[in-house]
Specification:
With 376 residues, the protein is of the alpha+beta class. It folds into 2 domains: 123 residues, Aminopeptidase (3-Layer(aba) Sandwich), CATH 3.40.630; 145 residues, Aminopeptidase. It has 9 helices and 14 strands. The strands form 2 sheets. A 12-stranded mixed sheet has the order 1-2-3-4-5-14-8-13-12-11-10-9, sandwiched between helices. Strand 3 and strand 4 form a beta hairpin. It binds coenzyme A. The site of coenzyme A has 21 residues, from strand 4, helix 3, strand 5 and helix 4.
Amino acid sequence: MPPSESPHAATVPPVEIVEATVPAVLDTPDAWPLHGVAAVSRACALENHGHANLAIDAAGARATMLTPAYRQVRRLVAVAPGARTADAVVGHAMVLLPQVGNVHTARVIVEVHPEHRRQGIGRALAEAVVDVARASGRRLLLTDVTYSPEPAPGPGTIEPPTGPGSVPLDHDSTRFAIAQGLRLVQVARHSVLDLPVPHETLGGLHDRAVEAAGSDYRVHVWHLDIPPEHLDSVATLKTRISTDMPSGDIVVEEDPWDAARVLATAVDLRERGQGRVLVAAEHVTSRSLVAYSEVVFPVDDPAVVFQCDTLVLREHRGRRLGMLVKTSLMAEVARARPDAERVHTWNAAENAQMLAINDALGFRSTSIEARWSRDL
Ligand SMILES: CC(C)(COP(=O)(O)OP(=O)(O)OC[C@H]1O[C@@H](n2cnc3c(N)ncnc32)[C@H](O)[C@@H]1OP(=O)(O)O)[C@@H](O)C(=O)NCCC(=O)NCCS
């Protein structure tokens, strides 16, 4: 199937915006948009971080578009008018449309290859993205922007209204975001933990957490498959984290999970070539899960691991359960991914408890990710 011509023709020559369709495989000519996405993503990641760990490749871009039951992902590329090759792609955009929970939002990415900036390509992509979001009935646009290194606070920076952190004013992304009518909502810290964590550090933190938790809790370590009797309980934790994470002044609705969604997510991860470790703490008396922490990793890239959610239900906080699940998780990562070199994580700058746990484990701040938003 050829990529469909999108109705979002750029208003600013000389680019044309084309929407990618999902190719059956990646080595056919119709997969060109996704190879173009990968090339631009890689160039932007190298510019920001000096490495491509955080870039999306063509397989990853395709995989995100395959399972639209819970979230639909649409991808747009900017090319010279009439061009239909990966080499001609100078910018890309992604629009993620949640299908359950927060269906009023669209999460977007707009990236222009560093060699093609300031020619109106970003604006053309941003306009197309707004069209897609509006046509899907979305009222709130959210986008996360990386800044590396983190700027020193003070003159020349702007701060979000409700929390700590700042972003540089004199920066392509900031100028662009302001020009697009976006406002800064929240600043998150992107940190990296070099692996392996020294045995004494991990062991010491783990032992203290075990002692504080006492005999009221039992730890479970799972990979992609979660035992059927725990699926509902994992779904409860996943639902709770959607509203328990700090979200600045953005109103976040509950994102409802059930056992079917937990199962579908594992299938999705497997199909995308991703592995996972999920560690949960069970409250022995009530037999329900009350805390968890989770990482995912590309099975074919042994060096890198991505930290996802960590949550302790409010009623069980203050007993070092966050540290318990996190240290158990890192021990399992060391066992299951012995060649892993680093774990990436992102935490809201105001999330002091989570940052304290990460600092104790040895995470170091490398860049920041700022969340911008705009009403549609
Ligand atoms: C931000 C980004 C997408 C801009 O792409 P671009 O093609 O260079 O942007 P455009 O040429 O369409 O610029 C549109 C407007 O943004 C503003 N702008 C963009 N870059 C700017 C800069 N370096 N200085 C001042 N204003 C700037 C201007 O108002 C510009 O309009 P103008 O050229 O008529 O003055 C690009 O720098 C990028 O990919 N950065 C990394 C990812 C990112 O930050 N994405 C944006 C998320 S909000």
